[in-house]
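Action item from last week, closing it out:
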Amino acid sequence: MAPTNWPAWVKTFNVDEMLHIRRLAVDIVDHELEAELHPFLQTVLEWASLRTSIPGPNGYRLRTIAQFIMTIPPDAFDAPEPTERQTRATSQAHGVVHGSLSSISASTMTASSGPSVISNPQQRAKDRRRTPDYATLLSPHDPAKPHPRLLFVHELKRYEERVFQEVQEGSKKSPYEVILESSFRDMEEQIAEQAELALWTFRDLRVVYVMCHVGVHFKVVRFGRKNSKSAGRRARGGVTALYKSKVYMLLNEDCTDFSGDFKIWWTIVKHGQVGDLGARTSSTPGNAN
């Protein structure tokens, strides 16, 4: 093939992709660093995204983006802007004009323009950005509906070898179960922050689904907004975990396809975001089977 003569289309079979995914999964137990697990998870999420996209002008494309940046606006926690009548009354009473609370909030709460990963807890509390490992987005092909829609935020952790050593003799739980429980539990604070940032970034969302990953295992946590007593404001720390699933496998038993549990969660959340793009039958090309 000539260097510039690329094919106009590529036919990809599920059996070939799953063969590659299975090869990456085999190596997971030998990896000590979290970064070494990303080829496996990224391949899984990208193939799931492609398989469940819908072609055509009325369809949509699912994309899984690494290090997707989510942020809170500078004036997110400011009090509501006063009405003209309130401003006039304040000026007459105090002899000053109502200033911009946005500038105060930005100067006192926004972190410097350094890296988004903050090691200092105080700086992290002020930092208004979070970059989860991955975010799965649905983008309509119709230019009249251009905004992307969030399906999942994804967070990945490696298996913790230390947990094997902490299991006592006679424990009712196997080391395998303890590893997963500990690893998923350690994510809870981090994914709550990510869910809150997701609700600010995607203003039309009422709930956010975070898919937590530990190796080839996953669980789903659904977050919703906390109710604020003030109608004009949104509370900090304003998310609550509405539901936590049990732990599932990403792949089926013989690693020839995604597991039924993964397909069910992915499809349910995707259908919730399809919305006004129209219904799709199970026979439509691109749906997960």
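Closing note: The beta strands are 60-66, 70-71, 129-130, 134-140, 149-157, 207-214, 217-225, 239-244, 248-249.
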